[in-house]
Write a structure and sequence with these properties.
Blueprint lengths: L3 E6 L8 H9 L8 E5 L2 H9 L4 E4 L1
Length: 59
């Protein structure tokens, strides 16, 4: 596996629950089309898996 994962927020979080918004914020994403490069750890992969419908992932 690669050491870095790039995630990009592709949908608005306006209709999300507070827990989902906190997960997006925990990934470091702020607005639509904002991308962030993160370490490939089990915790980050779990957050990505929970929010997969809002994210675009590249390695």
């Amino acid at each position: 596996m690669s050491n870095q994962i790039t995630v990009k927020l592709k949908k608005s979080v306006i209709g999300c629950t507070d827990k989902q918004k906190a997960t997006i914020k925990g990934l470091g994403l702020r607005r639509i089309n904002h991308s962030k490069t993160l370490e490939n750890t089990p915790a980050v992969r779990g957050m990505i898996k929970a929010m997969i419908q809002w994210l675009e992932i590249s390695k």
